[in-house]
Each structure stands twice: as structure tokens, then as C-alpha cells.
What we know:
Blueprint: E1 4-12, H1 22-31, E2 35-41, E3 44-51, H2 53-65, E4 74-79, E5 87-91, E6 111-113, H3 115-123, E7 127-131, H4 135-138, E8 141-143, H5 157-163, E9 172-176, H6 181-192, E10 197-201, H7 204-211, E11 219-221, E12 223-224, E13 231-232, E14 242-243, E15 250-251, H8 253-256, H9 276-294, H10 310-316
Helix pairs in contact: 1-2
Amino acid sequence: MSNYLVAALYKFVRLPEYEALQAPITEICIENNVKGTLLLAAEGINGTIAGPEDGLRRVLAYLRTIPAFEGLVHKESWADKAPFLRMKVRLKKEIVTMGVEGVDPNRTVGTYVKPGDWNALISDPDTIVVDTRNDYEVAIGTFKGAVDPKTKSFREFPSWAAENKDLLKKPKVAMFCTGGIRCEKSTAYMKEQGYDEVYHLEGGILKYLEEVPEEASLWEGDCFVFDERVSVRHGLEPGDYHMCRACRRPVSEEEMALPEFVEGVSCPYCHEETTEEQKERFAERQRQIMLAKQRGEKHIGITKPRAQNADVEQSLEMKES
């Protein structure tokens, strides 16, 4: 049996005194050996945490004692090794950054569609299906027939929508993301732009992969996740991808065999994007990681992701992941 229970959670709720929650939430997580990242903002909470089952459930129970988080919903999966290296509770302007003022999922949001009803919606010829995730996530898996906006960060989504109104002319717009949070904002944004029939996958791809049998699925590939598992498949089983420690993109076994891939230093996606000075710094970091491993210690001095992977940094600044 896997040793670590993983919980992905979010809730949009007015939280005017969110700063006061940082210390007690951090304390309860540390007491229970729970690690990961939680983001707090005036608009709510978002994050993924993991730990021993008893400890994680105590943390979740504590969160639900906070009046604003009553009824907090989370999604569960399991991991064989610790998905996170440390615990961080961050204070943010937004719990998922779109960068558009006034978008409030508590005021208006798209229609939620259960995973069991999703196939029928996206198979309807009157529906256009939009993947609201970033290019490096879409690259390893998406729903059959979905449109890839090719965004580098979620901040680019409003511009993409404005520039592709002709593409979005179908009567129904169906949107999806990893766990549901980006769709809360993207569907709210689309509703405020005048789109009438806007839908999103309740619980995101993770809930779909958990509930819909593989033989009935319209999902193709793996789903990128913001932790050390890198990707998951149907049944939320860990996928076959690894993580480039320089750019945080997922890389396949085939890509790791290419000369551009150097463990901890570069991959085929970022080899030309980093300077020699950066590569030297990454190489030294990798050397320290290997030395720590030889000593039976953990090395957690991990460089933050590049700016173009800002969603990885914000979504769960854990390795952020």
C-alpha cells in the first residue's frame, strides 16, 4: 500500500483576514508531518498537501473548523514516496493568477458537469472544448478533440479568448483543467464576456480519471500534476514522466535519452533557454543533491522555476511541487 495520502483542495470564499490563518495552518501541518503548499488570499484557499493518512486527515479536519472553509471539498490520491519536500503556506493576491480585476467565481461561474456526464457534453457537435492549462501540461495529455490555447501561463488566457472569438462561436463552451480551480475563473471570465452556455468539468481531470473507467474514457495521455509524481493516469496511478529540475517540465524516457537532457541541468525543452552560467549553477546544485543522497540526507535547496512557468510556481510553489 502507498504510504502518502495526497489531497488537492481549493475554495473560493471571501477571506478578508486571510493573513491571520498563515501561522496556525502552518503549525498544524508541521505537527502532523504534512508537506506541500497552500495559498491563501482574500478570495480563498488553494493547494495540494500530502503526508501520512492520519496526519493529513487531522489537517483537513482542522481546516474545516475554520468557518470560511466549512464544507471544503478535496480530491485524494496516493503516492509511494513523499510528493513534497517541505510545507509552505503562502499569502497571495490571488489563489490562481489570471490578472483580471473583478473576476469572482462567487458571483458568476460556468455550469458544473459531473465526470460521468462529461463525455456526452464534449461529444456534442455544438460544443467547443477548451483546455485551460498551459502548453507543457497539454503536451502530455488532453481530452480528445480539445482546443489547446498554447498558453505559457494562465495570465495569457483572457488575451487568447479575446483573439479567438470566431473559434468560440459554437453554442456551448466546455472548459477543463487539472483540479477545477482554473476553470472557476475562466468560466467566470467567459460569462462576464457575454458567453451564455459555459460549462466546466467538476473536480477537473483528476476527478474524471478517478471516476471514469479507462475503457469509457475520452482522455488521451497522462495528466501533469504539481508534485513529485509528475503525472498520473487513469485511477490516479503514477505516470511514466520525469521532471526536468531546471525548467520543471515533464520529460519522457525517450526525451531523457537525448543529448540535451542532463540530469538536474537541462532537457530538450530548456537546453537553449538557459545560459552557460545557469547550467553551471544547476550542475553544482545537482552535485550537492547527489552528495547529500550518498550521505543519506535530503537536499531541498531547489531553484525556483523560470518565469515562463509561472503557473507551476504559483500553483504549487513546492518544488515547488
